[in-house]
Amino acid sequence: MSIKDEIKRRKSRTAQIGTLSIGSDYPISVQSMTNCDVNNLTDTLKQIDRLEAAGCDLIRIAFPDIQSCKSIPIIKRHAKVPIMADVHFNYLIALEALQQDIDGIRLNPGNIKKEAEIIQVITKAQKKGAMIRFGINAGSLDKSIMEKYKEPNFLALVEEAEQVVKFLNKLEYQNFVLSIKSSNIIDTVKANQIIAKKCDYPLHIGITEAGFDQSGIVKSATGIGILLYEGIGDTVRVSLTGDPVKEVLVGHDILRALGIKKQGINLITCPTCGRCQVDIYKIARKVENNLQDVRLPLTIAIMGCIVNGPGEAKIADFGIAYHKKEAMLFREGTLIGRYNTRQALELLNQEIRIRLKREQSG
Length: 362
Ligand code: SF4
What we know:
Bound molecules: iron/sulfur cluster
Largest sheet: 8 strands, parallel, barrel
Number of helices: 13
CATH architecture of the largest domain: Alpha-Beta Barrel
Distance between the termini: 29 Å
C-alpha cells in the first residue's frame, strides 16, 4: 500500500479565491508571500513571476497602508495566480484592497478586533466575491485569551479560532479559510487537530516563523507533514526567512514526499558510502537541473553501486546505477545499456524528452 492510499483527507468545504478553489474537493495548494516592498512594483512583479514559475498557486502581498493598495490593479493584471492582501491593524486598508478588486484578504483577528470593522470588511468581501483568510497566530492572540492561558499554547489558539468561527457563523459568512499557527510545532499540530474535528472549514497550514535554511525546512516539513499525513490541510505555506521561491519548492517537496502530489521529478539518490566511485551529488544535481521544467510525475533513481543500485533503478521510471565508474541505465525496470556518465546523462535526458512528447501527444 502506498502512503497516499493511507491518507484520507479531512472533508472540508470549498473557499474560492479568484480562480483557485481551496478545500478537500481540490488539490492542496501551495502558497507564498512576496518579501519586497510592494511600492517597488518592478521588484514585486519580478518576484510574482518567479513564484509563479516555481509553481506557487496563491501569492500574498503585504499592503502596509491605503496608498499602497493603488497598485493592486497593475499587480492583478500582471499575475496569473490569485493575489491575497496581507492586512494588519487598519481595516480601512482591507476595504481599499477590496475596492481595488483584490482576490482575497488575510486578516489577523488579533490586531483587527472591533466587530463593526470586521463586519464592514466581510460585507465588502461578500459583495466583491473575495475570500478572507483568518490567521490566528500565537504571536498576536487576544489579550483576554492570553490572560486566561498565560501563554500562547494550543488551547489558547483553539479558543481564539473557535471565537472567530462562532462570529463568522453568526454573520453567515462562508467564504473563508482558517489558519492556526505557532512557531511551536506541537502547539500548531494539536490546535489544528482539534479545530479540524470541530468544523469543516478549509485549513491553511504551516509553522509560522519557522526560521531559515535547514532548521526552518525541517520544522516546517515536520509540522506540515504530520498534519498532512492525518488528512488535515487544504493549502500550505512554508514560512522561511529568505527567498520566497524556496518556500514554494519546499512546499511541493513536502507534498511529493507524502505521495500527495505526483507532478514533477521525484529524485531518489543514495547517500553514498565508501563503495561509491563517482560523485553522486554532482550527478544528481545535474539531473535535477536538466529536468527542472518537467511536470510529468516521474521517479528517477541515481545510485552509487550495485548493492541497492539496480534494485532502486529498476523500480523507478528511469534509473542509473553505477558499477564502479560505469553507469547502468534503466528504463521501467529494463537495462538499456552501460555507459560513461556523460553518455548516460544525455541518454537519460533524451529518454525523458521522448516520454514527455509521447504524453503530450497522447
Ligand atoms: Fe553505498 Fe552502494 Fe548503498 Fe550507495 S547504493 S549507499 S554506494 S552501498
